[in-house]
Amino acid sequence: MSTTMIGMRSLALVLLLTAAAAPARAASEADYKAAYAAAEAAAREAAGLRNQWTPTVSTLAAAKKAGDGGDFDRAVAAAKEAEALAKASIFQATSEKEAWKAMEIR
Amino acid sequence: MKTRSAIWLGSALFALTALGFTAQRVIAADKIDPATEAKAFQNFYFQKFPNVKHEDFVNGPYSMNEDMKRQWQEKEEFPPYEFALDAGKEMFATPFKNGKTYADCFPNGGIGIRQNYPYFDGKEGKVVTLELALNRCRAANGEEPYSYVKDEMASLTAYMAFTSRGKLMDIKIPDDPRALEAYENGKRYFYTRRGQMNFSCASCHVQSPGERIRAEILAPALGILNAMPIYRSEWSGMGTTSRRFITCNSQTRAVPLEPQSDEYRDVEYFLSYVANGLPISGPGARP
């Protein structure tokens, strides 16, 4: 193994350890607003497809409540979860456009 | 040489004929034929449950489980829907402020007609359910609409179903592409998975009737609406077809649609059509 490669590996390891050891930055209001906007947009798309999930609505409400209370870490986490849920429901609605036929009694 | 040409020609003709047959079959498969589909739907249940009398499917979980059936038969001596039925009868006969009654809005004075609902209204181009027709009747007579899910609406439909007990479901799909589209949309809604649980109506009522989901025994989809409206112990009260759809959606963690939305009207049309020939048994009682 060349010296350059060993050096690069060490550098990567140091960077990785530094990143892991560094305290996570607390989420700001701007982070929350951005995460909430993204979640809301995905939820709106799911509703447009007539396939909103109840956990999306409740998680979005939890994000708003945490954001209004100034707990932006919790608010961002909830908003991201709501976005993931909404995106899963969009995926479901899209794939079911054809997939439903597999279940049909013929 | 002549022989070889004859073989080539023969092969080509055979291939063309085969292609013609295949194309015809593809076209036939794409064409919606509700009557054939309804027959296949019914046969699926008749074959899956050969010991269940055909007319018994309208009794939902009781047709699937002997113990439950006995309990229900005893309960039917003093049925839990009786209060709603009496209230519905009285409401039906009570005139509106303008002196007219529900009987003025319906064919045959509203008696013994449940089996014809929902129907496809050619003028509106949409499916009209009994619940919708009742509220439209109220609006036409200057009255406020009732909630679609319970209380007065459940009482009125309970009475109308009772006057139709034993009559065979008789839903028509008129020769109108919009009616066929409504049927197809209802079918698609029925089989489409939704909600975080990734369930379709069919996941429970086609794939698993007779099986337990927690403490409940799942009802077959065949004839499931013939018993509407129902008294559900789980609800501690009466509920309409709208309530049933809304509850099913919530249970799969899907946000329910508005009562009497196009999708609910269409799925009611589909489910009622495939139950043609089975008797009305409503109002019903369910755990």
Task: Characterise this structure.
The complex is a heterodimer of chains A (about 110) and B (about 290). Chain A is mainly α. Chain A has one domain (about 25-100). In chain A, about 75% of the residues lie in helices and about 0% in strands. Chain A has four helices and no strands. Chain A has helices spanning about 5-20, 30-50, 55-70, 70-100. In chain A, helix 2 (about 30-50) runs antiparallel to helix 3. The longest helix of chain A has 28 residues, at about 70-100. The radius of gyration of chain A is 21 Å and the shape is elongated. The model of chain A has no long low-confidence stretch (mean pLDDT about 85). Chain B is mainly alpha-helical. Chain B has a single domain, classed as Cytochrome Bc1 Complex, Chain D, domain 2, CATH 1.10.760. Chain B is built from ten helices and seven strands. Chain B has helices at about 1-30, 35-50, 65-75, 80-95, 130-140, 150-160, 175-190, 200-205, 240-250, 260-275, and strands at about 120, 125-130, 210-215, 215, 230, 235-240, 285. Chain B has a three-stranded mixed beta sheet with strand order 6-5-7. In chain B, strands 1-2 form a two-stranded antiparallel ribbon. In chain B, strands 3-4 form a two-stranded antiparallel sheet. The relative contact order of chain B is 0.16. The interface of A and B includes residues 51, 57, 93 and 106 of A. Chain A: This is SoxXA-binding protein SoxK.
